[in-house]
Amino acid sequence: MMGKNDNVLFYIFSIHLIAYLRSIGIYQEKVTTTETGKKAYWFKNNRELQQHIQDYKGDWELQEFIKALRKIKGEMVG
Fold this sequence. Notes:
Elements: E1 2-5, E2 9-12, H1 15-23, E3 30-33, E4 39-44, H2 47-58, H3 60-77
Antiparallel strand pairs: 1-2, 2-4, 3-4
Organism: Alkaliphilus metalliredigens (strain QYMF)
InterPro entries: DUF5659
Pfam family, one: DUF5659
Protein backbone atom coordinates (compact mmCIF):
# COMPACT_ATOMS: atom_id res chain seq x y z
CA MET A 1 0.00 0.00 0.00
CA MET A 2 1.29 3.44 -0.89
CA GLY A 3 0.24 7.04 -0.46
CA LYS A 4 1.27 10.63 -0.97
CA ASN A 5 1.87 13.34 1.61
CA ASP A 6 2.24 16.95 0.44
CA ASN A 7 3.94 15.72 -2.79
CA VAL A 8 7.24 15.67 -0.89
CA LEU A 9 7.35 12.26 0.79
CA PHE A 10 5.63 9.07 -0.30
CA TYR A 11 4.79 6.33 2.20
CA ILE A 12 4.89 2.62 1.47
CA PHE A 13 3.64 -0.27 3.59
CA SER A 14 4.56 -3.16 1.25
CA ILE A 15 7.52 -5.09 2.63
CA HIS A 16 8.20 -6.49 -0.83
CA LEU A 17 8.33 -3.08 -2.51
CA ILE A 18 10.48 -1.67 0.29
CA ALA A 19 12.90 -4.60 -0.06
CA TYR A 20 13.00 -4.09 -3.83
CA LEU A 21 13.80 -0.40 -3.46
CA ARG A 22 16.55 -1.13 -0.96
CA SER A 23 18.02 -3.77 -3.27
CA ILE A 24 18.54 -1.09 -5.92
CA GLY A 25 19.98 1.42 -3.46
CA ILE A 26 16.94 3.54 -2.64
CA TYR A 27 16.42 4.05 1.08
CA GLN A 28 13.62 5.64 3.05
CA GLU A 29 13.88 9.10 4.56
CA LYS A 30 12.10 8.07 7.74
CA VAL A 31 9.95 5.36 9.32
CA THR A 32 6.84 6.11 11.35
CA THR A 33 4.26 3.98 13.11
CA THR A 34 0.57 4.42 12.32
CA GLU A 35 -2.19 4.50 14.92
CA THR A 36 -2.83 0.83 14.14
CA GLY A 37 0.81 -0.10 14.77
CA LYS A 38 1.85 -0.56 11.12
CA LYS A 39 5.22 0.78 10.00
CA ALA A 40 5.14 3.37 7.22
CA TYR A 41 8.35 3.85 5.24
CA TRP A 42 8.65 7.34 3.76
CA PHE A 43 10.58 7.96 0.53
CA LYS A 44 11.32 11.13 -1.41
CA ASN A 45 8.54 11.37 -3.97
CA ASN A 46 10.24 12.04 -7.26
CA ARG A 47 10.17 10.81 -10.84
CA GLU A 48 12.94 8.26 -10.17
CA LEU A 49 11.00 6.65 -7.30
CA GLN A 50 7.81 6.52 -9.36
CA GLN A 51 9.69 4.90 -12.26
CA HIS A 52 11.18 2.25 -9.98
CA ILE A 53 7.72 1.51 -8.55
CA GLN A 54 6.39 1.04 -12.09
CA ASP A 55 9.36 -1.21 -12.93
CA TYR A 56 8.62 -3.27 -9.81
CA LYS A 57 4.94 -3.62 -10.71
CA GLY A 58 5.77 -4.49 -14.32
CA ASP A 59 8.34 -7.19 -13.52
CA TRP A 60 6.33 -10.36 -14.13
CA GLU A 61 8.99 -12.74 -12.80
CA LEU A 62 9.39 -10.73 -9.61
CA GLN A 63 5.62 -10.67 -9.05
CA GLU A 64 5.42 -14.45 -9.56
CA PHE A 65 8.25 -14.91 -7.04
CA ILE A 66 6.40 -12.77 -4.49
CA LYS A 67 3.19 -14.80 -5.01
CA ALA A 68 5.12 -18.03 -4.44
CA LEU A 69 6.85 -16.60 -1.38
CA ARG A 70 3.51 -15.60 0.16
CA LYS A 71 2.08 -19.06 -0.51
CA ILE A 72 5.06 -20.83 1.07
CA LYS A 73 5.00 -18.48 4.05
CA GLY A 74 1.31 -19.29 4.54
CA GLU A 75 2.03 -23.02 4.41
CA MET A 76 4.85 -22.72 6.94
CA VAL A 77 2.86 -20.62 9.39
CA GLY A 78 -0.54 -22.28 9.08
